[in-house]
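Case study B.
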Amino acid sequence: MKDLIRIKSLLSTEVEELLNQQVKKEAMSSSIYLAMASWCNRNGFDYSSEYFFKQAEEERQHQLKFYKYILDMGGNAISPDVTGIKQEYNSFREVFEDALDQEISVTQSIKKIYARCLSEQDYITNEFLNWFLKEQREEEYKARRALELFEVIGEEGTGHWEIDRHVGKIKYESDAS
Amino acid sequence: MVTTLTSPSTPTWENVFSTASGAVYQCDAENCWYIDFAGKVAGFNYRCLQKLKKAIYHIDIEAKLLDTSKDPDVEIIFICACDHTYILTLLQVIALKELLQGTFVMLELNSILHDKLYRTAC
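Model:
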C-alpha cells in the first residue's frame, strides 16, 4: 500500500496545524504593532510610531514566510481571522511592555513548534525554523532595549520625548548577531 | 454496518481500517481513499479526506449529548469542493469518528513502515 499522505505532504498534520497557528500569531503581531503605531502617532510619539510601522511590516513578512513554507511542503495554509486587537493603551510605557510580551510569546510558540519537529524528526522544518529563532534574538533585544530606555532616561520632564527619539535609533548590531 | 461492498471489493483497493459500522479502503491506482459508511461508498482525495477529518473531529460530541433542546439530533457534514455530503445522527458521528481515528492511525503506521522498511533500508 502506497504511503499516500507522505507523497502529498512533507508535514505531519500536527506540525501543519502548529505552523498555521503561527501564521495567525504573526498576523496578530502585525496588527498589534499597527495599533501601537496608531496610538503612538496620535499621542505625538512619531519616532515610536515609525518604529512600530516597521515592526508591523516585519511581522507580516514572517507570516508570509510561514504561509509559503506550508504551501511549498504540500500543506494547507489557512488565511487567519484577526480580531480583538487592543487599540488603546494607558501609557507610553505600557505600549512597550505589551510589545515585549508579544515577542516573548512568539519566541515561546516557535520553541513549541521546534520541539514538536524534533520529536517527529522533521529536521527540514527545524532547519526552516532556525531563521526565526535567530530573528527572535533581535526582536526580543529591540523590545527589551526600548523598555530599558524608560529606566535609563526616566519618564520625568522631557523624558518621553527623549525616549521617543531614541526608540527610532534602536538597532541590534551585537557581535553575537 | 458495511452495506455495499463484498470483501475483497476491488483488487486494487486495500482495506485500511474497518469497524462494525464501516470501512476505509485505499486505492493506489487512483491515489485516493474510499469510505464505505452510512449506506454509500464515497471517494476522497487527500485534501478532502483531511477536510472530512477536520469536520468530524471538530464536532463537540459531549456538548451534543448534553444538549436537551428539541433540535433534531442530526449533523450535516458538508465539505467544500468535495462531491459528498453526510447527514448523520450523533451515533453515526461517533462511529465515523472512530472509523477515521483508526484509519489515520493505520495510515501513520503505514508511513512508519515505509520509512523503516524501504526509505532507510538502503
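Chain B touches chain A at residues 14, 16, 26, 28, 31-33, 46-47, 50, 104, 107-108, 110-111, 114 (CB under 8 Å). The remaining cases will be described in the next quarterly update.
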